[in-house]
Amino acid sequence: MPVNVAVIGLGHMGRIHLSKLCAFEGVTVSGICDIDDERAREYGTQYSVPVCTAYSDAINGASCAVIATPTESHYTIARECLERGVHVFLEKPITVLPEEARELVDLARLRGLVLQVGHLERLNPALTRALPRVTKPLLIETRRVSPFTGRSTDVDVVLDLMIHDLDLVLSLAHGTVQDVSAQGICFVSRLYDTVNARVEFSDGCVASLMASRAAAHRERSITIYEERQTFYVDLMQGKLVTVTSTGDQKTGTTEFTCDQMDPVKDELLQFVMAAAGHGTPSVSGVDGLKALELANRIRDHIAGKLRCRT
Ligand SMILES: NC(=O)c1ccc[n+]([C@@H]2O[C@H](COP(=O)([O-])OP(=O)(O)OC[C@H]3O[C@@H](n4cnc5c(N)ncnc54)[C@H](O)[C@@H]3O)[C@@H](O)[C@H]2O)c1
């Protein structure tokens, strides 16, 4: 019995999701839609899938929906899908407001539906290779910077880029968030395009996060510092470098680069499997909500400082 999936939103991410889903065995893309009708028709022809003019029609006959529309519309579309008994894969960030995310999480729980969020770095093979050896992170440093692309400017860089790293940090740190401080700059758009944040956890772990969409180069990395081990993961290249203290002021270094990396395919596979009753996705709606709550604390901190200045 094939799993019928609707794809809603066919921009940069939606087209990638569509191409991966069309290649899955046992999955049928039963409807696609985009408010840009021409774009939807073009992909309908290219992938030989039915095109709908409204998302409400695209989910007719579907058991799953992949939503890759701008963040502002996530809540409304996901809520309708869940209310109609459709499992939801929602691109990150889960929603704009935490109360919207809470409602989606509750709705999915009540209806027994999968609600997965697209924090795809959790499936990065270089990071998953490090995880079994990570014991107690003391310092975590993340960098996610890119030149300005003009996409996702409906939200600031915290919700656009840093949210991936907030999810990673929350999955790695053992304690609860104690304190947050941050600085932000509006560079190209009217929202923060560059943000640096410091998050302190109850177990003493401190995370330092840098995100910018106004940078001169592209970089996505995370470094996890422990008492006797450092893990550096180049998330873009799929490379892990581990530095271990071997005593007597000596260190040993090992390197690993993964051959193949396709985290979008992996997260979609988890989604359709979970919808079919097999396994649980790595990133749940609750994870998406926690990352959003922390993102909002960071944004509140910056906004508070700006208010103080005026
Ligand atoms: N996981 C990742 O690494 C990653 C990377 C980039 C973007 N994203 C997320 O994916 C989502 C989409 O981002 P993007 O870069 O693909 O944006 P995009 O602007 O390229 O695409 C969005 C598409 O949605 C369509 N759309 C808008 N409102 C709609 C509606 N109500 N119904 C149907 N279609 C609608 C637009 O016409 C457009 O084609 C955002 O939430 C973004 O944060 C995730």
Please give a structural write-up.
With 310 residues, the protein is α/β, with parallel strands linked by helices. The protein folds into two domains: 3-119, NAD(P)-binding Rossmann-like Domain (Rossmann fold, 3-Layer(aba) Sandwich); 121-263 and 294-309, 2-Layer Sandwich (Dihydrodipicolinate Reductase, domain 2), CATH 3.30.360. 35% of the residues lie in helices and 27% in strands. It has nine helices and 13 strands. The strands form two sheets. The protein has an eight-stranded mixed β-sheet with strand order 7-8-9-6-10-11-12-13. Helix 4 (74-83) links the parallel strand 3 and strand 4 (87-90). Helix 4 (74-83) packs parallel to helix 5, helix 5 runs antiparallel to helix 9 (285-309) and helix 7 packs across helix 9. The longest helix has 25 residues, at 285-309. The radius of gyration is 20 Å and the shape is globular. The chain starts with a strand and ends with a helix. Nicotinamide-adenine-dinucleotide binds at residues 8-14, 33-36, 39, 55, 68-71, 73, 91-92, 118, 120, 151-152, 160.
